[in-house]
Amino acid sequence: MSAPDATDRQALSRSQPLKRRRWPRTERRQARIRSVLARRQPDLTVVLENVHDPHNVSAILRSCDGVGVLRAHAVYTIEEPPAGAFARQTSASAAKWVEVERHKSLGDCFERLRAECFSILVTRIGPGSRSLYEWDLREPVALVLGNEMRGVSTEARDLADGAIHIPMAGMVESLNVSVACAVCLYEAFRQRTAAGDYELPKLDPDHLRTLEDDWLLR
Amino acid sequence: MSAPDATDRQALSRSQPLKRRRWPRTERRQARIRSVLARRQPDLTVVLENVHDPHNVSAILRSCDGVGVLRAHAVYTIEEPPAGAFARQTSASAAKWVEVERHKSLGDCFERLRAECFSILVTRIGPGSRSLYEWDLREPVALVLGNEMRGVSTEARDLADGAIHIPMAGMVESLNVSVACAVCLYEAFRQRTAAGDYELPKLDPDHLRTLEDDWLLR
Q1: What whole-number distance in Å separates Cα of residue B218 and Cα of residue A213?
Q2: Which residue, A46, A112, A146, B135, is most buried by CB atoms nearer than 10 A?
Q3: ipTM of the complex
Q4: Rounded to two decimals, what is the model's pTM?
């Protein structure tokens, strides 16, 4: 095949989005994206409630990507979201691969989650909180992670469907928030893997195709 | 009982360590320390190999405390240990409750661990590495965690008994090191809890008493 002439090249440049033209993606990348999307778990998510440390937000999004969270949620009512932590800078940044939906209020966020049939669990130790290992995390579940100092808000506790905690056998009675998030998400991952949940796509074919096209441009 | 006179008080002050006298501990605290020590797992540990971020070191020690690691190990051959991260500042600091033994070389560290019958597993993805969920983590196991940028060293890989990795279903192929550590430790915790390993003390009575006396002074 001969090289396209100038007119053809112009036609080509008009018919394709700029980024796709500039950064041609290999078939290997396409296969990788397809395989990752096939394992995404639209029925597993987290809510970041005023989590303020950018390192924690970044580590949480990496864990979300690792277990296949499709979309995370963020509610910043007390402070601003940490600068840059949600930005899709580099391909090594998980923020590039985990959509984060920001909500104006916890009420809005929970309403949205309930419309999608999620059970909403706050992560905290206290009366009525059940151990991580007692929950069936194959069910659609949203884990609410609170601020580093204050934990989840009273409002979140009151509005949630339940509370979940990581059992601890030590002197210090809390874990780093990104660590706690990962331990919970990986318990969901373990339960779901054992049940074969990562073997067949959970997203419908149209949604998969749309996401694949979108991800190829990232 | 009458109050001791001046001579008695002097005798008392000589016969008791300064800190115990200054900070009398309640029975509740004693019971708590005893209960935590009864759940310590002397056959579960981590090796920090040039982990340089103090937040990561701190989060790792919190997770160690949480699952009952008695003593962690540190090897800093390339850089200095992060300032303050191993310091026993406050009672909320896990460094106060997890002894960290520093070694001059990886060889020394592994020799020590082998003398205590530990299997040494480096955390890394690569040929021959087996998934976290395929290991029996009730066995005495030491998990080697590498530097944030470089991962575990070639030397560690060569000298270790095996490699362990956390399966990932996402686009980004690594987790934050403190997150990875916690996910591994909590899988050990889960397996050991299911097997009743936290129900009876693993430390012998003399060791427990010595540690209890020591911890009461912290």
Answers
A1: 58
A2: A46
A3: 0.87
A4: 0.88
